[in-house]
Amino acid sequence: MNTINHQGNFSSDGTDKYINIGSGVDWVHVRNLTTIASSTQWVGTEWFWQRGMTNDDAITNFHATASQIISTSTCAVGYNSVTYNGVSLIDTSLKTYGSIVASTGVSAAAPPLVATASTTGLVANKTIVRLTNMLGSTQYSGMDFTVGAVVADTTFALAHVALPVVSALAGEWRVVDYDASYYPRRRYITAISKAASAVVVTSVTNDFTVGEKVRFIVPSAFGMTEINNLVGTVTAVVQTGTTGNNTVTVNINSAAFTTFAFPLTGVSFTQAQLVPIGEDMPTALASGLSSLGGATLDKDFIGFKLGTSSTAAIALGSAGGTSGDAIKWRAGKSFEY
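The structure corresponding to this sequence follows.
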């Protein structure tokens, strides 16, 4: 017996589609109305996934010839010598970490590039990684970073780090699958400007809001000791997630402070952090924002992903479709026997 809990539709934009329904599901059924109506060879038309199947798989119907005739396979087995992307359950309340992957060095680029033989699972300007055992760049050990540009199985950039720490020595990294559940979140600092209104860069794409009260934790090893323990109000944020666009401006005049800089390799220190501590209500309201914008909020995502690809041949048979495809989905819970 199947009970439909949710259904919906969307127009594909050619990227993975995340459906946040706030609960787990036991099965997902997807129909691509655009490809169902066509007679294009090798396009997928329908996908069915149920609990017990692996993530990113699905039973899929497709046009094996340039006709309306339907054939059946799975995304994992594929057809036309291609494998496809299907349905994946996502529950970010279950905090998991990826496997440890070796790195061989950090380059002198800005942002710095981490050399590695595998970039599996990394998505530019989205994935968060944690660096550990960085033998030649211990300043970064234990820190989380948003990944910038990715060169497949060669390098990935530390998107929000302007000043590189060059190293040709080994290290390790792993994907931090899901960010902390509750907003607001504290963030590691990678740069602070000397300005009438200090501009702060954080290692992970920030989610601060205008009007938030924040405290600076900046140990002496980072140089700008004058800002340590000061409390400021966030007056502007940039949080697009792309390299260089991840800043928080606060109403603290740091123009006369000493320069902020990462410590040298081998120096023991606590990481510099920006910690949310409250809300400046007048500032938030004057900016036209919600008076509860800085309140504690559960940011977890529970639902599923319909995968696709930037590779045209893979996208044609994937559940997320290609740009402009009209897609309908339904999902639900089931009794299990």
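The CA atoms of residues 134 and 171 lie 4 Å apart.
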